[in-house]
Amino acid sequence: MKTKIYSLAKQPIGDLDLNTEVFGLEVRQDIIKLAIDWQLAKARAGTHLTRTVSEVSGTTKKPFKQKGTGNARQGSLRSAQMRGGGVAHGPVLRSHATALPKKVRRLAMCHALSAKLAEGKLIVLEDLKLPSAKTSAATAVMKNFEGRSFFVVDGSELNKDFALATRNLHNIVTVPQIGANVYDIVKHDVVMLTKDALTALEARLTNA
Q1: What is the pLDDT of residues 5-27, one digit of tens each?
Q2: Contact 141, 9 (CB under 8 A)
Q3: I need a surface site. Which of 3, 146, 169, 176 has the fewest CB within 10 A?
């Protein structure tokens, strides 16, 4: 399986062989969804918390006498049924992370990349060298490519000039290859991989 390599000016430079184990799979949306659900669950803070009866500030005195008032008996103003009282069965501090085998995560990444390639939304770039580390330079370059949003993956080292130039652009996310993930691949309209990123990803995803 071959694909073209482009410069940032969208000039074709040459051809490159793609690993069919990573980019040539028949897309499985169910596996992709498993990985996205796992990723989003793991990203949740889990800092939601309500106070129970024992944690609410207030008196321990009985609100009124047991008998003779005509009201239902009450033992505490901090009970869940009282205004300002504790909350019964409320959320507590916890982790929302779930378990997903590494092989399934790796497979989901391969399916996500295969899906982008099949849609014609995966572009391989020679490198991310800009004439200057300015937002205007990055904007001018990205106008060469059609897409609502871009997920740009560099090699093991992120090109600092490109990262600086694009950090104020809301529709471009730039990461080193270790930051490539299923959610961002699916979320963004176009995925861009540098030659170094492509080599690293193929090695990472084919070594079980």
Answers
A1: 999 988 999 888 999 999 999 99
A2: yes
A3: 146
